């Protein structure tokens, strides 16, 4: 089959060459696949494509545009409709003599009654964009071309991402193609089989967290493979000297604890990456969001924003007032204030991921809803997400820093801490020059501004960065710290959120300075021991946490809280299966197995409106989280799916009410890859590496360009920071990427996996000691029992001790006790009689009347034998009570000898 | 239902019935032969009609026990009009908690059964004053569905259960014999005596 397809394609290509009547190059890079009957027919389209530089596939390839006039319903359901285009696209493009935007010709644009989300990733900016590219990467086109040719030979697949480097003369068209590749997606609900992949392609939170986790892993890998020699040092040093010759900075900069911690943060990362291609928007208020802004939508039935917002607010107020311990009648400002209804101009509930400083000046903030932002700043320009761009810039940033040092703690894709202490010593340059040089280099390589802050610890560095923004640097030296901290707002401290800050404000503290008055004890009293101690340090500019260069993954999870709308349980189960598969693939990616499976569900709260305020959002929900722990750690997809479905079934929730589903695996253990290196495993890993190959090339190209840009770069000397192996490990896939939390643990500079080893050792020790302990406990018990038995005869003489022992004794011994009681010669006490009666009654209830019979007759005989009037009432009482019990249980009296 | 329990119980009831017949002197003692059971001497009736009745009763009891619906078996010594004068009661009660391995070889069980036989002999002195024309009957306490089920079984077809008449005289006193367990059932044995009962001793 493959051979056939290949042959057909070859025929087509050779056909073009023979014909030599190629009219234009409109469809360069466009491949089509014709599905079903079309006008013009498939054959005609084939010819047209050949004439205009396009490719026609007889069998469908994944990146083909599907040309169709109509499709059967099953096909519509099962394929991504993003690329199903009407044949008019081809004919109109030819008549216009340029490639038209295929989005205008989508066949199934309105097939679903739901409105669109505007997922278009890039607008066409044609030549301008290219110019920027060219400026930043002065490419040695020939060299690169050769490199690409090599790659082509290896893979024999077309590398779209590098297209503009291959054919410099046709960049504008190539870019066009690139752009139109980024497709606009029809909004799907989770019941759709393609939902998950579509969701992860468009979820911004997913991309951000994935990138963050990705870079933590990247730093881990770099550290593991590096020999900690940095050949780029010399070059960098000479560069610094060339810069700093003119303005020799003699001021001695000294940081606290004689450490130098640098914090690098890109300035409004998403915006500046987006603006690289849109210089015309520079200087204007710009926001990155999914929404286009200001376009009212049809109001959906069932939406009741007011009710839902009130619910949110109440919840928030409840939380806050609980934290502060005051009444719940307070008023708070939230971001959902002033959001109007959907059909209003300012009703958009699309979140702003990042906004430019011009927009911030007008009061727009990150995380604000688009509607509210538009009110503040009506001329706010929106640009779409460019996830590829973020990745590219982030890699460049990390590669730049890792050339010089690997003492890096990755925070997110655009933010990191770097311990520069050693680096500055070896370079023997001043911090000032270093900061200037590194910022310059980053700006030059990425085209995005960044800010750096320096301090004696991570807190200081971070606060310094805030001071440095935008596009600046700040040195929080030891002599500045006290004064600087004094004016820092408490809200700016990491770890201080709304709850803590409101509480502190109610105590009358807004800045760190005023908080310094409080003693450690009183802070801990108000906020709890841990938070109190942390704040006590923080408001003085101290931070005891060292940088962690090696991060250990604690959990793997996948969670979808958008678009979850099921009609029946079957769809829900199907979705759980898919999500389990997603988690499974992530676990394989990180080479871990896990023990604890948690299913997180978000279920519509009872009083929440049926339709959510945000389109397809989760609305106001009750979160449910249930987990099971397995016997053995696993990453078996079947086990995970089975467990998850069984948990879900147990909850017995109406699938229509579900709004969010997440699966999390914790208690992880890494797989020893050598042990489980079966053929299936190999298949998976090789597949993953294939997928990532083009990504790899992309980043690698950038590295090379970077080094070229340095000008003085001697390529052979520079150790290429990205070898294929590393890339396999980080695997920056688009479709099944990383989501979930990576919590760092302090391991220090040591590599490997010391934590697990430790844990194992300790548990085994525990088990052993437990076993030993258990044995000794058992021994003790035995000893006690024996001693009791030994003591009994002696104690039997004392009534008070004898009678309580009745029930615990075997019944034969009771007679001994009774005999001792009768022989004691004392007058009978009511409490003792009561005890005996209770014991006998218990025997009757448990139907042990044969024993009761013996005992009662025994008592009767003994008391008769004593001939003591004091004991007669005892006999009477006992017999009466026993007969009562007998009547209750058997309906008959016990036969008692006279 | 433990098959072992049914076997042991039916065997035990057979021994008990014959022994009661012997000790209560309902029939002349010459029609009994001695046998060895539970390592002690027991007596067994030789009269074919008596044995037939007892065997058929035991068959019904076995079937009823299998269905887990038999609560009680009574062996009543009656006068000529079949009015019970004294009853030997065997109560069956299922135990909720039961350790399968506790008495795996039934050693303790056998001891208990032996004890019952000896106990019966020891108390027999107290009820040998029955009139010469006394008779006996065996009562099963169960539900109607079991009755119907038993009647429809081919090997029990000709021996259906007959519903007992309303008890004329309510028994008044209980003389416990022994409580013991066979597998997961506990059996409570006692003698019900009518009110004006006086021992002949």
TrEMBL record, chain B:
<dbReference type="Pfam" id="PF02301">
    <property type="entry name" value="HORMA"/>
</dbReference>
<protein>
    <submittedName>
        <fullName>Mitotic spindle assembly checkpoint protein MAD2B</fullName>
    </submittedName>
</protein>
<dbReference type="InterPro" id="IPR003511">
    <property type="entry name" value="HORMA_dom"/>
</dbReference>
<dbReference type="InterPro" id="IPR036570">
    <property type="entry name" value="HORMA_dom_sf"/>
</dbReference>
<feature type="domain" description="HORMA">
    <location>
        <begin position="3"/>
        <end position="191"/>
    </location>
</feature>
<dbReference type="GO" id="GO:0016035">
    <property type="term" value="C:zeta DNA polymerase complex"/>
</dbReference>
<dbReference type="InterPro" id="IPR045091">
    <property type="entry name" value="Mad2-like"/>
</dbReference>
């Amino acid at each position: 089959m493959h051979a056939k397809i290949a042959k057909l394609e070859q025929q087509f290509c050779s056909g073009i060459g023979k014909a030599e009547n190629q009219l234009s190059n409109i469809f360069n890079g466009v491949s089509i696949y014709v599905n079903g009957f079309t006008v013009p027919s498939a054959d005609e389209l084939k010819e047209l494509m050949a004439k205009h530089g396009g490719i026609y596939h007889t069998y469908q390839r994944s990146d083909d545009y599907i040309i169709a006039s109509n499709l059967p319903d099953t096909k519509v359901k099962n394929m991504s409709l993003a690329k199903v285009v009407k044949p008019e696209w081809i004919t109109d493009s030819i008549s216009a003599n340029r490639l038209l935007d295929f989005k205008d010709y989508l066949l199934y644009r309105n097939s679903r009654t739901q409105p669109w989300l505007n997922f278009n990733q890039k607008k066409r900016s044609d030549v301008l964009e290219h110019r920027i590219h060219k400026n930043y990467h002065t490419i040695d086109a020939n060299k690169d071309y050769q490199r690409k040719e090599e790659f082509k030979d290896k893979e024999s697949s077309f590398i779209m991402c590098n297209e503009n480097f291959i054919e410099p003369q046709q960049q504008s068209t190539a870019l066009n193609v690139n752009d139109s590749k980024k497709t606009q997606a029809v909004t799907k609900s989770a019941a759709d089989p393609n939902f998950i992949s579509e969701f992860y392609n468009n979820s911004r939170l997913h991309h951000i967290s994935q990138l963050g986790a990705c870079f933590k892993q990247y730093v881990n890998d770099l550290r593991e493979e590096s020999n900690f020699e940095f050949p780029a040092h010399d070059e960098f040093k000479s560069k610094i000297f060339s810069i700093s010759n003119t303005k020799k900075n003699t001021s001695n900069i000294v940081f606290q604890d004689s450490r130098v911690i640098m914090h690098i943060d890109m300035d409004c990362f998403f915006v500046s990456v987006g603006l690289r291609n849109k210089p015309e928007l520079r200087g204007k208020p710009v926001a990155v969001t999914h929404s286009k802004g200001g376009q009212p939508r049809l109001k959906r039935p069932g939406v009741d924003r007011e009710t839902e917002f009130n619910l949110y607010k109440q919840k928030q107020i409840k939380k806050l007032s609980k934290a502060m311990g005051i009444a719940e009648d307070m008023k708070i400002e939230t971001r959902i204030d002033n959001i109007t209804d959907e059909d209003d101009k300012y009703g958009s509930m699309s979140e702003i991921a990042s906004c430019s400083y011009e927009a911030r000046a007008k009061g727009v903030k990150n995380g604000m809803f688009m509607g509210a932002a538009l009110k503040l700043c009506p001329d706010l320009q929106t640009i779409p997400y460019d996830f590829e761009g973020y990745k590219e810039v982030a890699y460049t940033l990390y590669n730049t820093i890792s050339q010089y040092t690997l003492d890096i703690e990755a925070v997110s894709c655009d933010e990191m801490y770097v311990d520069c202490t050693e680096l500055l010593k070896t370079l023997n340059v001043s911090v000032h020059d270093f900061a200037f040089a590194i910022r310059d280099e980053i700006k030059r390589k990425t085209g995005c501004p960044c800010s750096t802050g320096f301090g004696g610890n991570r807190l200081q560095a971070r606060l310094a960065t805030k001071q440095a923004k935008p596009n600046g640097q700040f040195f929080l030296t030891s002599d500045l710290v006290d004064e600087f901290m004094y004016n820092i707002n408490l809200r700016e401290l990491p770890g201080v959120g709304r709850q803590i800050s409101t509480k502190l404000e109610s105590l009358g503290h807004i800045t760190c300075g005023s908080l310094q008055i409080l003693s450690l004890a009183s802070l801990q009293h108000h906020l709890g021991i841990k938070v109190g101690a942390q704040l006590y340090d923080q408001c003085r500019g101290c931070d005891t946490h060292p940088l962690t260069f090696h991060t250990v993954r604690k959990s793997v999870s996948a969670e979808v809280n958008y678009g979850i709308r099921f009609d029946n349980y079957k769809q829900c189960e199907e979705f759980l299966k898919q999500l389990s598969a997603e988690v499974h693939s992530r676990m394989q990616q990180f080479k871990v197995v896990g023990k604890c499976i948690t299913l997180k569900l978000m279920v519509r709260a009872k009083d929440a409106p049926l339709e959510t305020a945000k389109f397809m959002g989760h609305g106001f929900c009750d979160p449910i989280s249930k987990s099971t722990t397995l016997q053995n750690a696993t990453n078996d997809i079947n086990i995970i799916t089975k467990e998850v479905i069984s948990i879900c079934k147990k909850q017995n929730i109406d699938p229509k009410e579900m709004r969010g589903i997440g699966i999390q695996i914790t208690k992880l253990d890494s797989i020893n890859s050598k042990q489980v290196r079966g053929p299936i495993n190999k298949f998976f890993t090789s597949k993953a590496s294939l997928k990532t190959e083009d990504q790899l090339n992309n980043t690698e190209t950038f590295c090379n360009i970077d080094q070229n840009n340095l000008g003085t770069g001697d390529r052979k000397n520079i150790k290429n920071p990205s070898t294929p192996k590393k890339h396999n490990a980080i695997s920056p896939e688009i479709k099944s990427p990383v989501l979930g939390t990576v919590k760092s643990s302090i391991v220090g500079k040591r590599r490997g996996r010391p934590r697990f080893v430790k844990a194992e050792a300790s548990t085994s020790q525990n088990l052993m000691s437990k076993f030993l302990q258990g044995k000794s406990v058992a021994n003790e018990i035995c000893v006690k029992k024996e001693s009791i038995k030994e003591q009994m005869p002696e104690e039997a003489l004392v009534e008070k001790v004898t009678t309580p022992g009745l029930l615990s004794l075997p019944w034969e011994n009771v007679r001994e006790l009774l005999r001792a009681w009768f022989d004691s010669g004392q007058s009978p006490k009511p409490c003792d009689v009561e005890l005996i009666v209770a014991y006998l009654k218990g025997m009757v209830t448990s139907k042990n009347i044969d024993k009761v019979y013996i005992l009662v007759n025994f008592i009767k005989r003994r008391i008769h034998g004593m001939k003591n009037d004091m004991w007669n009432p005892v006999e009477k009482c006992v017999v009466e009570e026993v007969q009562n019990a007998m009547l209750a249980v058997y309906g008959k009296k016990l036969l008692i000898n006279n | 239902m433990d098959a072992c329990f049914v076997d042991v119980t039916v065997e035990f009831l057979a021994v008990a019935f014959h022994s009661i017949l012997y000790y209560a002197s309902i029939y002349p003692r010459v029609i009994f032969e001695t046998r060895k059971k539970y390592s002690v001497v027991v007596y067994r009736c030789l009269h074919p009609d008596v044995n037939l009745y007892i065997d058929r009763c035991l068959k019904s009891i076995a079937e009823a026990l299998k269905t887990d619906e038999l609560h009680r078996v009574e062996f009543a010594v009656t006068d000529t009009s079949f009015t019970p004068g004294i009853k030997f009661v065997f109560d069956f009660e299922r135990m909720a908690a039961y350790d399968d391995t506790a008495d795996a070889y039934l050693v303790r069980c056998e001891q208990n059964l032996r004890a019952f036989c000896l106990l019966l002999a020891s108390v027999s002195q107290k009820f040998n004053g029955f009139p010469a024309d006394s008779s006996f009957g065996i009562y099963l306490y169960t539900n109607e569905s079991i009755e119907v089920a038993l009647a429809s079984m081919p090997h029990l077809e000709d021996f259906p259960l007959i519903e007992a008449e309303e008890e004329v005289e309510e028994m008044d006193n209980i003389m416990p014999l022994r409580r013991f367990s066979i597998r997961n059932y506990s059996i409570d044995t006692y003698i019900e005596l009518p009110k004006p009962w006086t021992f002949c001793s």
